Amino acid sequence: MTSNNTFGRLFQLTTYGESHGPGIGGVVDGCPAGVTLTESVIQAELDQRKPSANEASTPRAETDRVQIQSGVFEEQTTGAPIGFSIPNQDSRPQDYSELKKSYRPGHADYTYAAKYGLRDHRGGGRSSARETACRVAGGAVAKQFLAEKEISAVAYTRKLGGIEAEVISPDRAAELPYFAPDPSVVQLWEKKLSATRKAGDSLGGIVEIQVRGVPAGLGEPVFDKLDARLSQALMSVGAVKGVEVGAGFEAAELTGSRNNDPILKKGFSQNNAGGVLGGISSGQTVVLRAAVKPIPSINKPQRTVNNRGQEVTLQVEGRHDVSAIPRIVPVLKAMTLLTLADMWLLHQSRA
Amino acid sequence: MTSNNTFGRLFQLTTYGESHGPGIGGVVDGCPAGVTLTESVIQAELDQRKPSANEASTPRAETDRVQIQSGVFEEQTTGAPIGFSIPNQDSRPQDYSELKKSYRPGHADYTYAAKYGLRDHRGGGRSSARETACRVAGGAVAKQFLAEKEISAVAYTRKLGGIEAEVISPDRAAELPYFAPDPSVVQLWEKKLSATRKAGDSLGGIVEIQVRGVPAGLGEPVFDKLDARLSQALMSVGAVKGVEVGAGFEAAELTGSRNNDPILKKGFSQNNAGGVLGGISSGQTVVLRAAVKPIPSINKPQRTVNNRGQEVTLQVEGRHDVSAIPRIVPVLKAMTLLTLADMWLLHQSRA
Amino acid sequence: MTSNNTFGRLFQLTTYGESHGPGIGGVVDGCPAGVTLTESVIQAELDQRKPSANEASTPRAETDRVQIQSGVFEEQTTGAPIGFSIPNQDSRPQDYSELKKSYRPGHADYTYAAKYGLRDHRGGGRSSARETACRVAGGAVAKQFLAEKEISAVAYTRKLGGIEAEVISPDRAAELPYFAPDPSVVQLWEKKLSATRKAGDSLGGIVEIQVRGVPAGLGEPVFDKLDARLSQALMSVGAVKGVEVGAGFEAAELTGSRNNDPILKKGFSQNNAGGVLGGISSGQTVVLRAAVKPIPSINKPQRTVNNRGQEVTLQVEGRHDVSAIPRIVPVLKAMTLLTLADMWLLHQSRA
Amino acid sequence: MTSNNTFGRLFQLTTYGESHGPGIGGVVDGCPAGVTLTESVIQAELDQRKPSANEASTPRAETDRVQIQSGVFEEQTTGAPIGFSIPNQDSRPQDYSELKKSYRPGHADYTYAAKYGLRDHRGGGRSSARETACRVAGGAVAKQFLAEKEISAVAYTRKLGGIEAEVISPDRAAELPYFAPDPSVVQLWEKKLSATRKAGDSLGGIVEIQVRGVPAGLGEPVFDKLDARLSQALMSVGAVKGVEVGAGFEAAELTGSRNNDPILKKGFSQNNAGGVLGGISSGQTVVLRAAVKPIPSINKPQRTVNNRGQEVTLQVEGRHDVSAIPRIVPVLKAMTLLTLADMWLLHQSRA
């Protein structure tokens, strides 16, 4: 089940924390006993999310250090809940005084105020992308669990600022800037990002995820379909505005004879289904794509209203990331892994 | 929470039933007391899903009649669970003997067998689209509940077989063939469907849904975002392979300055967000699109395997629908309404 | 999870239905595929709940006939939800006109009116014990599932109207009147019931349940303890006012040295724990007791108020059961079995 | 829903942490925005649980200090999850080497080993009563929320070592040793505890809880009855072996005419129901009792087996508490408050 700040029914991640406050963290509940886990394993995933010196992100002295609080004994999970915490550093609430009053377009400022009546305006509060660090930490636990089942995921940038990459070497994407699945696209993206940064604007793109080793049978028919759960998982990440599986929106244009994946003795001969049939994994690679909107914080004047309903022109100061990509890539991978771990346990419960 | 055959956390629909068996039905649990409800209100929604005499569907003597079993007293909901049942008619299990052995490409036959070990092969069993009638019945209850809050939805076909419709009169779509939002597109679609039918093939398309009257504040941040929950809702319908909100995949191509919706005193000046910011409704119309794949049952020989792993050529006999559209349209609307009703109760619980 | 009309997290029972209306029924969701199931298996359990010709119950022409609607194919569960329905017979709403206005003491009339604003007063509506028939039907499915794991339960009356029975032959209790675990107590109970009936009054008692064959390891520590879940299960049955496990309230009087169950090579040497340690089954027989209050419907004038807040004297007419025992016994057994089935799946999910 | 380490459906507490490790903590999710909350408010409840210099507990240098990590801004809840942490102090894993091998009778050592295959033996690991500190912290948030609805609870010791207290001044119990509801019983209990301590043994007792100000209408009929949920809540606390509501087990001995609470214009004239009718609060005080078993750790030789299945005699060294009372009293109060807060939100969601 999904319950606001808890994700999953059996393999569950609960998170807490705002961008400004003592710290963020969470609890992974339901991970079976006996899975190898250390702080450095989680840290390695978190490091993939940190802002690096490229054209998309802003170099900051942000060094998230995760601490495991419980649930691990002699480098193995015990079956008890795995509490983890990541202290906030370098939080300067005074920087955000202007945002206390005005609602940034494209952000959750306005809707949080409408929902809760009051609002922690410091750096976006709970709606800050900082929250996603806990997803990555939780995803690292799922990754360890799934590795024992020989299930693994790769995630990479398929499109950035309208420039599409070919999928040449997806397994090496994590080593290249922007999680590029093709070394030759990096320079094109860099140019685009650089120009956009200079224009004070921002870019979106498309992230693709492949999950390999998923056995046939995962996913519950009807409401808990594997692809339905994955859609929620990806769409729950702030900047995502669309999700597709396999041929996705392209499938809407095909005829049945073209779209159907023939089944041969050695397996399916193509993968328009994206590894999911009737909501259940077919044994093929699960293929997902998420559309990422451009970051709403830009260095251009924008029309908005303040908390007294007056129209104002807002110019967000400071240096901002130009794109949620690449930092969002490990977050989407984490959500995919958390979903798979949950669906694995669900399936096993009745196996 | 979503739990296999139960949808929703507070406004919950549980369904049961296969295409061949005594009947299908379900339970709507959590609908507040005092909502006006009759069998004819549910029946009217069900009738929108029935196969009509057009080029997309096959005329059948299928006349689903819903019976309310409980939870309604003197035409008002009592707060008790609303049980409903729809007897199966005209079920002829003998027609499906060939499918007992072979797995139809693009169907769930193969994955059900892999998951459960055994399989009710009659007409697809639980994986049959027949299951969606119960979603429409449940959606009718949600519709009644939301009507009291002045929330309503319209759904229409945006694209069929690659031919896009303009959105001229979405409110009249339910009266036109194929839920067309523009009368002038009907003939084009008919031609395409007719040609495809003759070719023994099938078509997909795109369905769009608008929800109006949603107040700002619905949706729970983080994992239970309004758009995340809606994505799961739509993707849980069999033929759907992609979901997008507002500008959706298009947003991935825009710059932030173009994508951000400026906020004016009188409201937002555009709606790329699709009515959702940070996972919370903004007060704008919620706009969703679902990509529907072509129906996998076609009148062409297809390569597949049987349950002994041997390669066979399968030719599915009989007359089949050419497209899941238009019958899927009321189903997607129902899932949207069920999600909104659930999010409404969730929001109210802490208001 | 438990959610109003749904019980269980993985092995789930959802029920609907009032005492007067077309029918009652439910859905068992999450039962693994391949479990042997027929209508007659469920019917046999339902028959244990029907009013028989004894001093406790009122002979009525109530013959609940269950119909399986889905989820079973060739006498085996398929993994799909098992819908079942039990038509209501002999419902005469006109008999209840007086109860429309007055709130019966000890019943839920007053609290339902307070909660929902409106109320289906016919025979208690949803608060009628009729609802428990669906629990018994669901429990029958759980029984079949657990039988494959060699887990079984017996339930019997431990005390009735203050007269305690010895536990001589618990396995034969279902064959004796009042589910007596000792043939010699039957006559004493009959006398007591007969006298109480003549006095127009009612009686309560204590039901004991033993679950055998439970392997060590079922139950989730902390909030989902096996005994915590069982407590909720039993207390959710209308007339139950207390629940205890193993030595129960008696344990509060013992010293630790007396209460602790020593562990020998061949197992525990006593069972004060009732088969549960730290919320997890120990491999011993699980022993539970539920305190059942006397039936509130009596043939004596009672002081109460009507729906306009006026004090009235209410004399409930007609013949009433003298005790919820024995009809409650199969209900409590069913709730125990449903809980065990759920905990079994939960445990297996992470095994 | 209850999900292992998460309690509640809408007002949810998730906890983590073992007796030996960096720390324990949790997340309160679903508390509405605008509730006054500070660390000192939570600390005050935690202080009620700390071992004090009396005959029941062992004075230790345990000073739990709670830190709020998130969800509170300017001393008000924001609607975001409230993360809190309590660092472990004074954890000396080396003290527990003997327990690594032998299973303490009456403890969860044996069942944890059976369930998880491996076990964090240090101080009982997750099964340690240390876990309950997080329940008290969560209960403090519920207390603040309910205070705004004018709902409050008192908890006190009703019986200790077989000696029953009269309920003279329940509201002052928190100020007296052992949460005594009658000053005159303190000395009797002290004597009993002292003698038991000298004998190297331990004692159990009964805790009673009253919840006042509960409006009529809380609780969901059928499986989610208010008393069913409260039973699970109390029974989920380690040492509890029985739970009763209102007259409880006593009700099983009464006739209906005696047990039914007459309803007068000014309210009910007695409270055998314990404030709950048909699973819904009636507006009366909710009255609960929990049977607490004697602490299993005693200073006497006990027969048990080790992890190789060999019989051994175990003598647990060190000074132990003589009774879980009084430290368990604030824990049971916290679980009651958490349940009420959850049921309040559930009710409000459909109001």
Describe this structure in words.
The structure is a homotetramer of 351-residue chains. The first copy, chain A, is of the alpha+beta class. Chain A has a single domain, classed as Chorismate synthase, AroC fold. Chain A is built from 7 helices and 18 strands. In chain A, strand 2 and strand 3 form a beta hairpin. Chains in contact: A-B, A-C, A-D, B-C, B-D, C-D. The interface between C and D is large, with 105 and 104 residues.
List keywords for this structure.
homotetramer, 351 residues, alpha+beta, Chorismate synthase, AroC fold, five-stranded antiparallel β-sheet, 7 helices, 24% helix, globular
Short structural description:
Four copies of one chain form a homotetramer. By secondary structure, chain A is an alpha+beta fold. Chain A is built from seven helices and 18 strands.
Give the end-to-end Cα distance of chain A, rounded to a whole number of Å: 20 Å
Reading the helices and strands of chain A in chain order gives EEEHEEEEHHEEHEHEHEEEEEEEH
Oligomer: homotetramer
Portion in strands of chain A: 15-25%
**Count of alpha/pi helices of chain A:** 7
User: What CATH architecture label of chain A applies?
Assistant: 4-Layer Sandwich
Indicate the mean pLDDT of chain A.
Answer: 93
